[in-house]
C-alpha cells in the first residue's frame, strides 16, 4: 500500500528564518510524482512545489525548495525567509492519477 | 482561465438522506478527482474520472459514487448519509498528457457537508 508520513504535526518558525518540513513515503510505482500543497484557513489547496521522481535534481520555486532522497523515500520541504503568509497546513502527497496525502504539518510563523 | 468550481459550497443534510455535489474542472482538463477531508482521517482519495470513465477508486463504500459528463463536469453522490460523512469534499482537475506529465492537480474550494 502507498503511504505518506508527516511526522511533525506542528512547526513554528520566526519570520525571515528557515524551516524544514519532513515527509517520507512508500510506493510501489516506478513512475510517480511528489507534491507539497499548502492549505490556508480558507481551505483552498495550493500547490507549493512538485518533483518528478525520475528527476534527480531537487525542485526549487522561489523561497521553497525540496530535498528529494529517492533511495530513502524522503521528500522534505525547505522554506527560506519565512513570511507571515506562509502560515498554513502543509500536506505532502505522492502519486500519479491518485494522490496519497500525509496527515499534514501546521506551520506557525512568529512575528 | 477560470479555476475549479464546486457547488454548493455548504450543505446541511440529515442522516439517511442522499446528496449530490458538483465539480466543474478547469477548461480543457479531462481528469477529475474527488477527495474527502476530515479532521480524523485527513485527505482521502475517493475516485478519479477521465473521459467519462472511472479510472481509479479509493477505499470507500458503495454509498459513494460519481460520474463524469462529456464536458468533463463531474458529480459525486452519497446515498444514505451517515454522521461520519460530514467532511470537506474537494474536487481536483488535471490535464495529463502522458506519464511524463507532472499531472499537477488543481483543487476547487470544496463543499462543506454537514450531516445531522
What does this protein look like?
The complex is a heterodimer of chains A (111) and B (116). Chain A is mostly beta strands and 111 residues long. Chain A has strands at residues 3-5, 10-14, 19-21, 24-26, 33-39, 46-52, 60-61, 64-69, 74-79, 88-95, 99-101, 105-110. The model of chain A has no long low-confidence stretch (mean pLDDT 93). With 116 residues, chain B is mostly beta strands. Chain B has no helices and eleven strands. In chain B, a hairpin with a 3-residue loop joins strand 4 (31-38) and strand 5. Chain B is globular, with a radius of gyration of 14 Å. The N and C termini of chain B lie far apart (37 Å). Chain A binds chain B through residues 31, 33, 35, 37, 42-47, 50, 52, 91, 93, 96-104, and chain B through 31, 33, 35, 42-45, 48, 50, 55-56, 58, 88, 90, 92, 94, 96, 99-100, 102-107, 109-110.
Layout: helices, strands, pairs:
The complex is a heterodimer of chains A (111) and B (116).
Chain A lengths: L2 E3 L4 E5 L4 E3 L2 E3 L6 E7 L6 E7 L7 E2 L2 E6 L4 E6 L8 E8 L3 E3 L3 E6 L1
Parallel strand pairs in A: 2-12
Antiparallel strand pairs in A: 1-4, 3-9, 5-6, 5-10, 7-8, 8-9, 10-11, 10-12
Chain B lengths: L4 E3 L2 E4 L5 E6 L6 E8 L3 E9 L2 E5 L6 E5 L5 E5 L8 E8 L11 E2 L3 E5 L1
Parallel strand pairs in B: 2-11
Antiparallel strand pairs in B: 1-3, 3-8, 4-5, 4-9, 5-6, 7-8, 9-10, 9-11
Provide a brief overview of the structure.
The complex is a heterodimer of chains A (111) and B (116). Chain A has 111 residues and is mostly beta strands. Chain A is 0% helix and 53% strand.
Q: Could you list the spans of chain B in which at least 5 consecutive residues all have pLDDT below 50?
A: none
Order of SSEs of chain B, N→C?
A: EEEEEEEEEEE
Query: What would the average pLDDT of chain A be, to the nearest integer?
Result: 93
Q: What is the string of SSEs of chain A from the N terminus onward?
A: EEEEEEEEEEEE
Count of DSSP strands of chain A: 12
Backbone shape of chain A? globular
Principal-axes geometry of chain B comes out as globular
Amino acid at each position: 500500500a502507498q503511504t505518506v508520513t508527516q511526522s511533525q504535526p506542528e512547526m513554528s518558525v520566526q519570520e525571515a528564518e528557515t524551516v524544514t518540513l519532513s515527509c517520507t513515503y512508500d510506493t510501489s510505482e516506478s513512475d510517480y510524482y511528489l507534491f507539497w500543497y499548502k492549505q490556508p484557513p480558507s481551505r483552498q489547496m495550493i500547490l507549493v512545489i512538485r518533483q518528478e521522481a525520475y528527476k534527480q535534481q531537487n525542485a526549487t520555486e522561489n523561497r521553497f525548495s525540496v530535498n528529494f532522497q529517492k533511495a530513502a523515500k524522503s521528500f522534505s520541504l525547505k522554506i527560506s525567509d519565512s513570511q507571515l503568509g506562509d502560515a498554513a497546513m502543509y500536506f505532502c502527497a505522492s502519486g500519479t492519477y491518485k494522490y496519497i496525502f500525509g496527515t499534514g504539518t501546521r506551520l506557525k510563523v512568529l512575528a | 482561465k477560470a479555476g475549479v468550481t464546486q457547488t454548493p459550497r455548504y450543505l446541511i443534510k440529515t442522516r439517511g438522506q442522499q446528496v449530490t455535489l458538483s465539480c466543474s474542472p478547469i477548461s480543457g482538463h479531462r481528469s477529475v478527482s474527488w477527495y474527502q477531508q476530515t479532521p480524523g482521517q485527513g485527505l482521502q482519495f475517493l475516485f478519479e474520472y477521465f473521459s467519462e470513465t472511472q479510472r481509479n477508486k479509493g477505499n470507500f463504500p458503495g454509498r459513494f459514487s460519481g460520474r463524469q459528463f462529456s464536458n468533463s463536469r463531474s458529480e459525486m453522490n452519497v446515498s444514505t448519509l451517515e454522521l461520519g460523512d460530514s467532511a470537506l469534499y474537494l474536487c481536483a482537475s488535471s490535464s495529463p498528457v502522458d506519464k511524463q506529465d507532472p499531472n499537477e492537480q488543481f483543487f476547487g474550494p470544496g463543499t462543506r457537508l454537514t450531516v445531522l
